[in-house]
Amino acid sequence: MSNPLLGTFVHGVGGVSASTCYVPFQKVKKWSWDTYWLLQATFAWFIFPLVLGFLTVPNLLAVFNDSPIDVIVNATLLGAVYGFGGMCFGFAIKHIGYSLTYTISIGISAILGTIVPLLMHGNFIEKLEAPGGGIIFLGMFMALIGIAICGVAGYRKEADLKRNAQEGDDVLTFDMKKGLLLTLIAGILSAVFGISLEVGAPVAEMAGKYGAGNFEGNASLILSTFGAFVTNLVWFITAGIKNKTLKEFVDVKSIGTRSYGINFGMSVLSGALWYGQFFFYGIAHVQMGAFKFASWVIHMSMLIFFSYIIGIVMKEWVAVTKRTYTTLIYALIILVLSFFVMTYGSMQGA
Questions:
Q1: Does the pTM exceed 0.90?
Q2: Which of 26, 248, 260, 267 has the highest CB neighbour number within 10 Å of its CB?
């Protein structure tokens, strides 16, 4: 039996995992971005999905064998497209920080990743007119307003930092224009990941028939993450050869040292946290009942909320004016309200 309230709570656990997945990078020293990203991507998009898939889905190979081949191919290809979005997301953080990257990118993903699958299946109007449907779409509209206000806060932050910066300060690296472009690309392609999961739903349903229960989503997740992994593997191995950074993996002098262990461990932790968000997403999705389509937007809203907390903890907003910070708080309030509205709509539908 479905339980939207429990599902919402588990989405929150996934949101915590997702909003913290790039924090360990702060502890990685003397490694290039290429090296860190390739290692965390290997664990996030290949090793963890495969291992947890075999552990939680009975007869996993039989599940794939009995699933439609076109579903498997399409879900994997869409995951590969998302792979570029993951790269843009990581680079955006370097330009505009955690709070804005998560809010704008994931906000766009939340809306597109919810509406596009409904249009694909031709049941947009049906869901809109269903009990609670109108409330959910109202919450989505509120989220869009919150995202727009976040953009305003971002531009004000950039102005504040440049106004108060002194020569040589790192704050001058804050670039809202470049970061915004990257977050827009990341947001659109992140939504493609949600669509990939939707396309792969028949594989999850097949896993359910084999007794996977709440873990049925781990079967289809393997397809989406494998596609993303292949894209990043090709890109960053090429970049590693070009930039001569691949040797950082096998540097004989550093292997076994404390710094190498920390770098390796933090990269693996990043991958574990990223994978954790969709491990919990799959469990929560099963609990959403008739309003499973709302899972994506609720999950993303949770992620946005906790990303603000991370941004505040990391002191990303201490150097801004009271006006800028107030704008940010207004955006946060609207986003949180939109989350509650969408959750209420889901419960009405159930």
A1: no
A2: 267
